[in-house]
Structures
1.
Amino acid sequence: DAGITQSPRHKVTETGTPVTLRCHQTENHRYMYWYRQDPGHGLRLIHYSYGVKDTDKGEVSDGYSVSRSKTEDFLLTLESATSSQTSVYFCAITGGSDYNEQFFGPGTRLTVL
Amino acid sequence: TQLLEQSPQFLSIQEGENLTVYCNSSSVFSSLQWYRQEPGEGPVLLVTVVTGGEVKKLKRLTFQFGDARKDSSLHITAAQTGDTGLYLCAGDRGYGNKLVFGAGTILRVKS
C-alpha cells in the first residue's frame, strides 16, 4: 500500500464551474503525477511534479493547472470545466526505484454536465 | 497515434486457455512495465523489464522484453477468471521521470 488517497472519489459538476481534485500521499515521495483515463486512450499524463512548487506539463495539460505547496499534497484544478474533461482521474507517485515504477491512487470519477 | 501500441484491444477467452498480449513501439525504452487494473481501482504494477531479451515469470504470467527494447509481450498460461482485467504496458524513455502508456488490453476470462 503506497498510501495514496484521492478526494473526492466521485463528482458531478456543470460546465463552466471550477473543480479541484486532491491527491494526498503519506510516503514523502518526490514525484507525483496526474493522469486521465478514457476508453481507448489508456492513461494520459496531465501534469506532474518533481518537488514542492516544481511542476511541469504532460501531454494533455490544456485546461488544467496544478499546485504543490506541500510534499504530501498535489492538487489538480479545472479552471472552467468542460464536457470533454469528463473522465477518470488518477494520481500516482514514483516509488523511488531506478525504473520510475508508479503507484496509483484509487481514482476520481468526474462528470461534467 | 499512440507511442505504444497494444494488441489486441479486447480478448475474451475460456478459463484454461492461453493468451498473449503485445506492446509495440518504434521507440526504444530504458525499461517497460506492465500493470493490471480492475474496475473502480487504480492500476497495479505487475513487473518491470529492463534488459533487452529479458524474460520474467510471475506464476502463470510470462513477460518478455524485445531484444531492441522496443516491444514487449505478456503471456498468460491457463487463464483463470481472476485474471480478468485491463492490462496496460508503460514505457520509460529514460528522461523526465515520465511513463508513456499503451491504450490497454481488456481481458475477460469466462468460466
Note: The first strand of chain A starts at residue 4 and ends at 7.
2.
Amino acid sequence: SQQGEEDPQALSIQEGENATMNCSYKTSINNLQWYRQNSGRGLVHLILIRSNEREKHSGRLRVTLDTSKKSSSLLITASRAADTASYFCAPKTSYDKVIFGPGTSLSVIP
Amino acid sequence: SQTIHQWPATLVQPVGSPLSLECTVEGTSNPNLYWYRQAAGRGLQLLFYSVGIGQISSEVPQNLSASRPQDRQFILSSKKLLLSDSGFYLCAWSVSLNNEQFFGPGTRLTVL
C-alpha cells in the first residue's frame, strides 16, 4: 500500500478564484481517487481516474494524472464558499487498500 | 441505493471503560469494510479492514479490535479505553479494494 502526499497542506483563496491541489505518490498505481471532507463529516468520493487516463472532469472539478511524474492535480474552478473542506488523494495499487494522506485544507473566503 | 450507518454520532467515555462502535451497510452484498480514525485536523489512519465475514486485517497495533459478525456489520471495540483513543472514527465500504470508498457520518469519541 502507499500513501499520497497532498500539497499544499493549506490553501486560502477568494471566492471565484481557482484552487489547485497536488498529489504525489511513489509506486505504480491502478487508479487514483480524490475525496472531500467537510468539517466533522465523513469523506465524500469526488473522482476516480484510472492509470491509463490523463484527465477527467466532473462539473467544476478537473483532475489530471501524470504517471511518469507520479503526480496528480485537482483543480476546482470558480470556487465557492461551500468548497471549503479538506481534500485527500488516494493512489491505489491493484488489490491493495487505500491509504489516505494528510490532505489539503482549502478555505474559500466569500 | 446503498447507505452506510454509524452510531452513536458522539460518545464521551471515561478512561478504562469499554467501547463498541457499530457500522452497518445497506443495499449491497459482501462489501469491503473499513475502520479509520482521524485525530483533530489530521489525515485518516486506517485501523482495520475486512474483505468478508470473520476476516479482519489489523493495520496498526493498538488498544482496539474489530469484528464482522455479519456480512454488512462491522464493529469496533475496546476493552479499556485510553485517553489516546479519542478521535473521529469513520467507517467506510467499497465494492472491492480497488474501488472508491463510501463513508459513514462518523463517531466523535472523547475519552476523559
Note: The domain at 3-111 of chain B is CATH 2.60.40.10 (Immunoglobulin-like).
